[in-house]
Amino acid sequence: MVAFLNSLPGAVAQGIIWGIMAIGVYVTFKILDMADLSVDGSFATGGAVLVTCVTGGMNVWVAVLAATLAGCLAGLVTGIFHTKFGIPAILAGILTQLGLYSINLRILGGQANKTVSASNYKLMLTLRNIPGAIIVAAIVTLILIIVCYFFFGTEIGESLRATGANQHMARANGINTDFTKVLGLVISNGIVAFSGAVLAQYQGFADVNMGRGAIVIGLAAVIIGEVIFGKIFKNFALRLLAAVFGGIIYYVVLTLVLRMGLNANDLKLFSALVVAIFLGVPFWKNKISQKLPARKNEDSTEQ
């Protein structure tokens, strides 16, 4: 238990950083009602661009901006594949993710990973100062949520939400749904790449495989946050915050399970099971809620 408590701050820091990534997943999964698998590639792209730019002498904040824009370009490619080539969204994301692997390798100079030490470069946050990392990540997350809250309250933002709610109705109201889909994918992958850039600084390196399975973690954070805080957090900004809380809970539980003896090789399996269980919770709730009125009606009929 002592070891778990000592590792708790690190789990919270990682949970917040992955929570940022979950906000990006929320944009496509919940707002656009679209499955986008390109985030596995764009997450690593953000980390690779950040490390390469910082080690090349660029200011860390400019490097973060460059990483975010690189993610936006990845989302743009997915959007073009989907809207202009007629490729289903899930397949378009897979194609982008596949292509990004080679691009990320080139960004990293042909290396599988590249380090960026806090001793040599001035970074936003670092693993060496976990309390400071939590504070910085929390501030950045709150700023991102505020920006998203006001953006999705604008006319363009409302168009995005309308497209996800009902594409046919959105088109009937004069909304260019192809444009809103592309824009949503650009925003989503930009946020995901931003998260990858933050994580690369925190852990001190970028790896070409650092985004593998990121979509599962992002979905886990979104679903956990929705299931636990869905009835409490009704406001859009609070729903985004719930996704971040979901990321924190996910990593705290993951740390606890590892301390209890789970083999690290089984982490992917554990993540998949967590997502499957939490995705099934709303379905089970609906089933139970449908059965209860039916039983009440049967009882009243018998009486």
Describe what this molecule looks like in 3D:
It is a single chain. This protein is mainly alpha-helical. The protein has a single domain (2-266), classed as ABC transporter involved in vitamin B12 uptake, BtuC (Orthogonal Bundle). Helix content is 77%, strand content 2%. It contains 11 helices and 2 strands. It has helices spanning 2-31, 39-55, 60-83, 89-107, 130-151, 155-165, 167-172, 177-203, 214-229, 236-259, 267-302; strands spanning 113-115, 205-207. A two-stranded antiparallel sheet has the order 1-2. The longest helix has 36 residues, at 267-302. The protein is globular.
Instruction: Please give the order of strands in the largest beta sheet.
Output: 1-2
Annotation, overall tally of beta strands: 2
> Would you identify the regions where 5 or more consecutive residues have pLDDT less than 50?
none
**What is the tally of helical segments?**
11
Name given to the CATH architecture: Orthogonal Bundle
Series of secondary-structure elements, N-terminal to C-terminal: HHHHEHHHHEHHH
Q: Cα-atom Rg, whole angstroms?
A: 20 Å
Distance between the termini: 55 Å
* Count of folded domains: 1
SSE-based structural type: mainly alpha
Mean pLDDT: 90
3D shape: globular
Oligomeric state, counting identical vs distinct chains: single chain
Q: What CATH first level would be assigned? A: Mainly Alpha
**What fraction, in percent, of the residue positions are helical?**
over 70%
